[in-house]
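Weekly modeling sync, notes
Attendees: S.R. (lead), two postdocs, one rotation student

Agenda item 3: backlog of single-chain predictions. S.R. asked that every request posted to the team notebook include the full sequence so nobody has to chase files. The rotation student volunteered to paste the first one in as an example of the format we agreed on. Action items at the bottom.

Example entry:
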Amino acid sequence: MVEPPQGPSRPQYDDEISLVDLATTFLKRRRVFYVVFIMVSLAGVAYALLAPEKHEYVSLMKVAEKANGEYLEEPSTIIAELDSLWVPDLEAAHRSEHNRNLPFKITASNPEDTGLVRIVSEASPSDAELVEKSHRQLIERVGAEQNEALARLRKSLETQIESMDSTIDMLEGGQNTGEAIASAVENQLSLESDLESLAPFEALVVSRQSGKGAGPSRALIVVLAIMLGLMAGVFAAFLAEFIGLVKDRTSEI
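Predicted structure, as returned to the notebook:
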């Protein structure tokens, strides 16, 4: 009797791993999984409970303005000076005096379409006094530079106004000088308007503590620790099985 032809058989490989093999391996090494999972999770919970609480401390300053809403110095320029010069100087001075780095970072930014410079630090409440001192030093440095530049501009405008006064007095004694006098008076009024429009540098807020804690919440840290514990536990279980197989093979040699 002729047997019907059979289709191509599925090749078998000795190194194939099925889901059943994976489940069997995991159950075999479940104690390793439990140990690693519990250790990582407990470490995460301990960190969440013992990690110092941090808050955001914000300082805000308004740069000096000239006429027509123009800034005496662009906020982006001040931020560049803070980041590249004044903050590093402050950190170096603290390191030299206390033989350690500042326990927090200082960043500066400019809220869009404003003449404000925002200084921010994330620190624990125990460092609040140091944060305020550091922010105040930076604000005073910016303010001193702004006020000095504003004084120079004010002096220049006053000198030009006085010069216009002299020019007008001189023209009033001449003949056919009406147009020249009118132009001089117009320029003088414009200069006086520019002088009155000058707005000084102002520190609006110094190291104000945010009501909400900065950084990830404790609950989020615990959740991430549990997820990490699950992944580390599974990896450790299969790694333990691999090491066990290697030992068995090497003992047979």
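Discussion: group reviewed the output briefly. The radius of gyration is 36 Å.
Action items: rotation student to repeat for the remaining queue; S.R. to check formatting next week.
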